[in-house]
Design a protein that fits this description.
With 838 residues, the protein is α+β, with helices and mostly antiparallel strands. The chain contains 27 helices and 21 strands. The strands form 2 sheets. Strands 2-3-8-5-7-6 form a 6-stranded mixed β-barrel. The radius of gyration is 34 Å and the shape is elongated.
Amino acid sequence: MSLAQASRLARRELRGGLRGFRLFLACLALGVAAIAAVGSVRSGIEAGLAREGAALLGGDAELELTYRFADAQESAWMAARATAVSEIAEFRSMAVAGDDRALTQVKAVDDLYPLVGSVALSPEMSLDAALAVQDGTPGAVMERALIDRLGLAVGDTFRLGEQAFRLSAEITREPDSAAAGFALGPRTLVRRGALDASGLLAPGTLFNSKYRLDLPDGADLPALEADAKARFANSGIRWRDARNGAPGVAQFVDRLSAFLILVGLSGLAVGGVGVSAAVRSYLARKTEVIATLRALGADRRTIFATYFIQIGLLTLLGVTLGVVLGGVAPILLSPILEARLPVPAAFGLFPAPLVEAALYGLLTAFIFTLWPLARVDEVRAATLFRDAWSGAARLPRLPYLLITGGAVAALVALAGWFNGSWWLTLWTLGGIAGALVLLVIAAAGIRALARRLAPRLHGRPSLRWAMSAIGGTGEGAGAVVLSLGLGLSVLAAVGQIDGNLRQAIAGNLPEVAPSYFFVDIQRDQMPGYTERLENDPAVRRIDSAPMLRGVITQINGRPAREVAGNHWVLDGDRGVTYAEAPGEDAIITRGDWWEPGYSGPPQISFAAEEAGEMGLTLGDRLTVNILGRDITGEITSFQEVDYSNAAIGFIITMPPSALAGAPHTFISTVYAEPEAEAAILRDLVQAYPNVTAIRVKDAIDRVADVLAGLAAATSYGAAATLLTGFLVLIGAAAAGADARTFEAAVLKTMGATRRSIAISFILRAAFLGLAAGAVALLAGILGGWAVSTFIMETDYAVIWPSALMIVAGGITATVLAGLGFARRALTARPAGVLRARE
């Protein structure tokens, strides 16, 4: 075989233009573009976060403490290394204006805030002027949502705790808002000193202190981080710096984009079906050309190389189009994207995501084109001269199967390496492969069923013709079921996952969840608080517990992360409480609770599920840093902690003696009738201004809003997959247009009316759409169940409205595509069609 000769033949074949390859190029370009666009947006956000790291963080570095301010040693360390240090306190509180009350996230800042960037206010003014004291009342600024909820106007007064504030302006931009993470309430900014008389920062109350450092130019951030962590290893200090000013945002963006790229791969898989169909259809039309080449002495390798080179060049064209489209689209849409993104972004051309998308496209095209190309290699010249392309072997020879398997393995390895989550990659690609297998089996079953039904449909000619067409060669049925079915499967799975998440959060919880969480209740306020609620017949239940926060620093004398890895319990501080006896609903799974009045060495009752994940056993010793003090205790029992019902739950429980003297407050949950909630909130906040109330329904709504954004993002990815499937569907309809025209001509000659033929076409399309939708529904339900059960760990129930829409969508899409190419078949004259047929 001469490669030069094969290249010359391929070049001559390409002179015929792109006829037959428009679907090939469209499917490949769309799939690659979707992946390239997602990767480019991710890279743009990462570039924006890196560029604006200091502004997002509010300084070059930040040290954060829980429920305390820095001590003298910590303050001295920061002052010695920074040119300026800004102190901030953050906590939740109730903003009260007249009879209106609303939860707010308070940020108490000093005169240096912000060290980097600026706060934008409306009306325009400096932050110093907005927070200044006028006529004895300090100023404050709020986000618009809170202003509207309280019915305030600039110049009105409101209270935080026992301190009155004057609303000076609305916050329109807060430079470090992205680094703050998820908040249950809108923001209020005040001066730190203005809170001294509020009673909100009493010992034991729930707040975080943050110290932003303005460092000298050229400061060694890694060295400073190592020094701070070594010097204050057991003090509960957490370090962040401008290298990753918003780590939560960066991690979220990375995980979401990884998932969307995997959804994009499912779109490429759908496109692969179209690519394979286009190649198979093209080679079928080249029967005479291939036969002529074989007759002239061309061997099978030369023919294979000829078309492999030709399709390879077209693949490069399709991938290039996709890369260009996916790389340029985020830049063109950057004004819209930047306006909608809550974080800064720097959109541009980023090579890494474009290369990633190109590699995915090349591998997918190779996998889906090798099979039909391999079939050419097995067909003899005599068979080709008889126009019996369909008689070629269905399965290629073993070497081709092995190469295809290797390409699939390379695609999986590439996806896992790029997105960094092997389990997510294997789950997603395994689901795609499972759906494809299910759809192939379904397509074969539909053809077999249609062949069996057709002879039995006497007296129903339109339905009989439809079944006969579906049960024929099967190429059209297979393409429709595979392309549309896989696209609908992805959309169905996304719909089921989203629906079950919403149901778990907004549907099931309110039936068992408390009405309110009350936090920061002082010990001396508990008797009056309890009396108010116990005397209310609308209150069904009250649960209260001491509330502290602690960081697990060591396990059996070793750093906690060395023992338990990156478990979420070790990521920051966790709830700690004390109790004389187990609660009424407590279930001790192993070990024994301490005796009443126990005053010996500290003991710990740990959450059973988390203990198993961390590898903890009875007798292990944990060191917990609480308010800067290390407490080491022995695990003597494990208990079940159920977070799903929004009740009080603590990872760590200790005897009262272990935490004696530690300043703390109480947390309480109240279960009440809906009509009594407003009066309870009014009375308690009025009597105890320092107490913060969190309405569970409001918290659920905030989480639901976040889920809505996630669902929208994943739905866009699934929609791209579905669009690719629709393109393949249109291609299949276009490829069968000539066959339907000939079929209609024959039926007209035999006396069939145009109406009955049209009904036959509609029934054929509707049946295939129903089959594709039904299989997609099954695949989507299975995929949704797997993700909900094993990844989200939530209960699962089929969301039927979403499910039925998938089936309806399948029927609608196939009918529309079929009718779009049926007009010529219905209007063509039989004589002209039959005379043109050899």
